[in-house]
Amino acid sequence: MEFASACPKGAMQSHRAVFLNTAALFAVQTRTEHDVMLNALPLPHVYGNIVMNGTFMVGATLVMMEAQRAEDPRPLRPASHEC
Questions:
Q1: Domain with 27 in it
Q2: Closest of 20, 18, 27, 4 to residue 76, by C-alpha
Q3: Measuring CA to CA, which residue among 55, 23, 27, 26 is closest to residue 39?
Q4: CA dist 54 to 29, 58, 72, 73, Å?
Q5: pTM for the full predicted model
Q6: Quick check: is 7 in a domain?
Q7: Which of 27, 49, 71, 80 is the most buried (most CB within 10 A)?
């Protein structure tokens, strides 16, 4: 798994918390089964996961972008940084 920052972080969330976060966001965004959602974020990312779950909750179509790889990736932090 790759991370956007040098130090991986994680937090446990209950199924109920994931469901309520997703339902609240999609209620505000008023998505319907006629929408097509484009997800460019990896599914382990919080918002990428919410987009996926919310799209399925309303019966819309989800389009996942392929991962993009940089030719010459630069570290976001100096190599000497320790977690």
A1: 15-64
A2: 4
A3: 55
A4: 10, 6, 34, 32
A5: 0.61
A6: no
A7: 49
CB 47 within 8 A of CB 41: yes
What is the distance, to the nearest Å, from the Cα of residue 41 to the centroid of all Cα atoms in its chain?
5
Q: Are 76 and 4 in contact (CB under 8 A)?
A: yes
Give the H or E element holding residue 64: strand 61-64
Number of domains in the chain: 1
| Nearest by Cα to 41 from 26, 19, 63 | 63
Give pLDDT tens digits for 6-33: 566 677 778 898 888 888 888 888 888 9
Report the helix count and the strand count for the chain, using DSSP H and E: 2, 2
Q: How far apart are the first and last CA of the chain?
A: 17
